[in-house]
Amino acid sequence: MSGMTAITPTKPEFSGTGTIVNPATGAVAGEVQWTDPADVPNIAAGLRAAQREWELRGAKGRAKAMARFALWLNDHHEEIEDLLIKETGKSAVDAAREVPMLIMILAYYTKTMEKALAPERRPAALPFLAIKKVTVHYRPRPVVGIIAPWNYPVANALMDAIGALAAGCAVLLKPSERTPLTAEVLRRGWRESGAPDVLALAQGAREVSEAVIDNADFVQFTGSSATGAKVAERAARRLTPVSLELGGKDPMIVCEDADIDLAAHAAVWGAMFNAGQTCVSVERVYVHESVYDQFVEAVVRDVKALQVGAGEGFTFGALIDEAQRAVTERHIADAKAKGARVLTGGQRPDGPGSFYPPTVLVDVDHSMACMTEETFGPTLPIMKVRSVQEAIRLANDSPYGLSASVFSGDVGRAKEIALQLDCGAVNINDVISNLMCLSAPMGGWKTSGIGARFGGADGLRKYCRVETVVAPRTNIGAGGNYYHNSLKALARMNRLMTRMALRGPRRLAK
Ligand code: NAD
């Protein structure tokens, strides 16, 4: 912890025991004990104490514990998925993706972490320091605070925690107050798999988040851009570094030479997966006028084939709550009022649960919120464009820059388009797949984030502080730089070193 003044937590909105309701049925999904923000400093202190031993185990020792946790997750995936469906109203198809993703991330990092975290030998660079041996060590930041959203309560809770734990940090996880239950099971699994107490939970909303920020040495935040700005502001009070994974308005560009069926399948899956509640979902599509009708027809066909309902036998689940449904409705109403047409969906269904049908909108433009604000719901607005240049301009006309996709029969051309888009990742003839390229960074530009997750070794090193150790190769010449040298000897050494240093600039300046 830094030596800066502690910040007193504010009074919590969530206290005592809370009841979590299944958004698909209104039935009780489970109960949670909210954390008192005043207890967070103690929880962090416990983690801080346990972290030393975790760090000292070394990457190999930690990888073993993490491997056991991966096996535990596999053994308990049905229990986790059942609870996930109750907690979020997801379809079984959507719920089934989260545990495997965590297992794959664990497998990747347990395999690569030793090399990624190994000390690095560096040349001393300056000739007069040739007698030195320089190593850079990656030392974990003791307590990493992770503040998570609700859309993937399993994957979002742990996909960043895995990197932090691998790096040797302890993790204080604050799940979303909308989905606290699955995190409790994950925490139980960490303990039951025999791992030490370097993973703790703080359950609650803003006040608990703030206490986590105030007691962490690094904050990994995933959530909306508006909240991300508040997190950065709070963390700045103690100069705590942050990594922010924020909202998006991801565009898809469909060129005239694209495989239209493939593009339509991808658009529908990319927009409707998890009922549209995915940061990297396809939020808007720009289609070349020559293939527009064909594309729209294929999209509507695919959307109509989705089976709406939570759990087993369904492909498209409920929205997390009424607030999320209200945003979707507002965007659709605004679009209709400004001249858009609804081709399918667009009507709140009768009956229980916060369901909203997958909705395709056409005749849309950038005067409409559905094309400019993050919907985070099941809408697929499609805009006709006259040229790819127009599509690029419109795709970049956004405060967000998370990711994008380009569909073209010519991959070389699609790459050229990709490098004109202002965002953190572009998928060609596919959507969302960059998220699983663990060796590459996943991060947003503009208001979509600061920093990135994953990215191979960088995904672990971001949770570390670097410590440089400079040791002597030999004691001959030691102290040659100190006061006891004569001025003459110093001047001789300076002349020699400067002459050597200027060789390169002399060559270059010719
Ligand atoms: P949110 O910003 O409302 O909440 C996220 C977390 O922040 C929650 O745990 C919440 O309790 C906490 N929080 C709320 N107010 C806070 C405050 N003032 N200070 C500190 N913490 C506070 O986001 P959400 O509705 O849970 O999630 C949806 C958003 O997350 C969308 O914008 C989505 O795009 C984004 N998201 C981004 C990624 C990514 O990787 N870029 C991934 C998933 C979701």
TrEMBL record:
- Sequence ranges assigned to domain Aldehyde dehydrogenase in this UniProt record: 19-469
Q: CDD domains under this entry?
A: ALDH_DDALDH
Q: Name one GO biological process term.
A: aldehyde metabolic process
Q: Which domain of life is it from?
A: Bacteria
Active site per database record: 245, 279
Stated name of the protein: Aldehyde dehydrogenase
Q: Which is one Pfam family of this protein?
A: Aldedh
What does the sequence similarity comment in the record state about its family? Belongs to the aldehyde dehydrogenase family.
Q: Which GO terms describe its molecular function?
A: succinate-semialdehyde dehydrogenase (NADP+) activity
Q: Which reaction does it catalyse?
A: succinate semialdehyde + NADP(+) + H2O = succinate + NADPH + 2 H(+)
Keyword set for this entry?
Oxidoreductase
